[in-house]
Amino acid sequence: MHTILSNERIYDNICLMTVVGDFQAARMGQFYMLRTSRDAPLLSRPISIHNLEQDRMQFLYRIAGEGTRLMAELRGGDSIKLAGPLGNGFPQVKGRIALIGGGIGIAPLLYAARQLDKPDVYLGFQKQPYLTEAFTPYANQLTVQIGGSILEEVNFSHYDYAIVCGPLGMLKEAARMAEGLETKVYVSLEKRMACGVGACYVCSVMNKNGNRKVCTDGPVFLAKEVEWHELSL
Amino acid sequence: MNLACNIAGIPFRNPIVMASGTFGFGQEYARLYDINQLGGIVSKGLTLNPRRGNTGTRIWETAGGMMNSVGLENPGIDAFLAEEMKFWETIEPVRIANLGGSSIEDYVLGAVKITKDTGERHNTHLRGVDMIELNISCPNVKEGGMAFGIKTEVAREVIREVRQATSLPLAVKLSPNAENIVDMAVMCEEEGADAVSLVNTFSGMTIDIHQRRSVFSNLYAGLSGPAIKPIALRMVHQVARQVTIPVMGMGGITSASDIIEFIMAGAEVVQVGTYNFMNLRAGENLLLGLHNFMEQENIQSLDEIRGIIG
Ligand SMILES: Cc1cc2nc3c(=O)[nH]c(=O)nc-3n(C[C@H](O)[C@H](O)[C@H](O)COP(=O)(O)OP(=O)(O)OC[C@H]3O[C@@H](n4cnc5c(N)ncnc54)[C@H](O)[C@@H]3O)c2cc1C
Ligand SMILES: Cc1cc2nc3c(=O)[nH]c(=O)nc-3n(C[C@H](O)[C@H](O)[C@H](O)COP(=O)(O)O)c2cc1C
Ligand code: FES
């Protein structure tokens, strides 16, 4: 059980939750399994680390259904159950790096921007941007796009690494755009999860080297190793 | 206070056993709490050859439950014996290998491999598999699994052959989708099974009304969790009254009081599945709850309450 410091709706259906606790070190791109003190929904929900500073953990989430709706009802002082940090996270790479987020896919990128050495940050939104100013101190260059595809702004050949988080279509497109280039593209995949710790085989994805579990082998994968045509939530 | 249980001469320190497919091989949960407190662990369903499992959506939540369509993804028996047994050698709970298959030959070959490996380990004073749980009830594999678990006379053949192939204690995991689960259990006893475990998941369905198709590429999937508990409990009660071999009861257990209900209905031990997802420290918490209940009710041994519902 952890105590919520604040939980605000920052825009439309996007919420920012700050939790206090004695958190162990976590890697960028890792996630936690979250649940309220209710029994429903049955399963916990995977949410990425948006930011972590000493005893403050932040989660940025979109109200997508019942689980996140109940999460959004919580107030400062309420408690929440967290299990984590889980998953492999983004690699600590050096070189020319593009961090690319689409919509709520920007969630894990703030913590990543802080760990990496001044990456170029690209953030795409459908209607209105949010929290982009938080990236300014850590970005070499910050590009924000509203409507259309943020990928059109990225010149992949310019980078040694690209880290992409967003809707499936965007991840696929990024993988396609970097085909044949030296650029190593890492994507953060999403699957429904049950255990979150690698025990139930519910979150398997097919990879060029066999099955992989998104919760423990991922969520971050090299784009060229993903079997894109097999993917579904 | 005595929580000890026994199946075919194998002592369980307490009645809490982790159900197949929800606990991996235990290693993941061992990082979260001391799994040596548990009575037993059942492995993920193992098949002769590795399986990549089903494509498409594998999980869906329903009111009070969840549906899964994993399709027996597993590393195969050889990899299990070579890799996972290294960890199993080091743990205290009763080690139960869940054996799946899609043909009688596969079941038999699998049982032979596990039995032989265990014999070799015992010869070198290592721990091996303590018991086989024969899964004739997986609803998520088209070509087999549950096909054997529906009709008693079809299942009889599998159990007879596997019984001959192994000297290890043999439990048979029954499907609630069986035509007659009591007949099935009685048949298992007749064929020399040492125990029956029930229930596996209930075959169910969910339709995506926008896409106008089933959520699952296999059409149906297996329902587990609190939603199935009353039916599972009724089945355990019916079966326990008709067989003399021990029953491992399961279906929707999420609390110590649920465990007590299954034991009162006649189960020797219980298995906990879906609750492991709701609470990653399920085993530890259930055990604590069980201790508290017995203390409050001044129960010294589970035998005092086992099967007391006539
Ligand atoms: C590793 C990982 C990290 C994530 N990090 C974040 C994050 O930082 N912020 C955030 O807002 N969301 C994140 N998600 C997605 C989030 O987990 C889902 O939106 C959430 O589980 C939906 O739960 P719900 O009960 O609100 O919706 P449900 O009623 O369960 O579903 C509503 C909609 O969400 C989709 N959905 C359900 N489960 C998932 C899932 N596991 N992943 C993606 N979509 C799903 C469903 O298909 C449906 O369209 C992450 C997912 C993963 C796998
Ligand atoms: C994700 C998942 C995977 C499962 N895999 C297996 C399996 O491989 N073999 C098996 O015999 N039962 C399997 N089961 C069934 C459980 O062992 C158990 O019988 C069932 O879930 C009912 O118990 P519960 O309500 O406590 O979960 C699985 C269940 C779930 C939820
Ligand atoms: S969610 Fe259980 S293995 Fe990934």
TrEMBL record, chain A:
Cofactor or coenzyme needed: [2Fe-2S] cluster; FAD
Family annotation (InterPro entries): Cyt_c3_hydrogenase_gsu (IPR012165), Dihydroorotate_DH_ele_sf (IPR037117), Dihydroorotate_DH_Fe-S-bd (IPR019480), FAD-bd_FR_type (IPR017927), FNR_nucleotide-bd (IPR039261), PyrK_electron_transfer (IPR050353), Riboflavin_synthase-like_b-brl (IPR017938)
Binding note for cofactor: Binds 1 [2Fe-2S] cluster per subunit. Binds 1 FAD per subunit.
Swiss-Prot/TrEMBL keywords: 2Fe-2S, Electron transport, FAD, Flavoprotein, Iron, Iron-sulfur, Metal-binding, Transport
Keyword Iron-sulfur found: yes
Leader peptide range in chain numbering: none
Superkingdom, natural source: Bacteria
MF GO annotations: 2 iron, 2 sulfur cluster binding; flavin adenine dinucleotide binding; metal ion binding; oxidoreductase activity
Residues that coordinate or bind FAD: 45-48, 60-62, 67-68
Record: residues binding [2Fe-2S] cluster: 195, 200, 203, 215
Domain FAD-binding FR-type: 1-92
SUPFAM superfamilies: Ferredoxin reductase-like, C-terminal NADP-linked domain, Riboflavin synthase domain-like
Biological process, per Gene Ontology: pyrimidine nucleotide biosynthetic process
Similarity comment: Belongs to the PyrK family.
Protein known as: Dihydroorotate dehydrogenase electron transfer subunit
Organism: Paenibacillus dendrobii
Lineage of source species: Bacteria, Bacillati, Bacillota, Bacilli, Bacillales
Automatic annotation (TrEMBL), chain B:
Keywords tagged on the record: Cytoplasm, Flavoprotein, FMN, Oxidoreductase, Pyrimidine biosynthesis
Binding-site positions, FMN: 20, 44-45, 98, 135, 173, 199, 225, 251-252, 273-274
GO molecular function term, any single one: dihydroorotate dehydrogenase (fumarate) activity
Main location: cytoplasm
GO annotation, cellular component aspect: cytoplasm
Cofactor note (record): Binds 1 FMN per subunit.
This protein's name: Dihydroorotate dehydrogenase
Record lineage: Bacteria, Bacillati, Bacillota, Bacilli, Bacillales
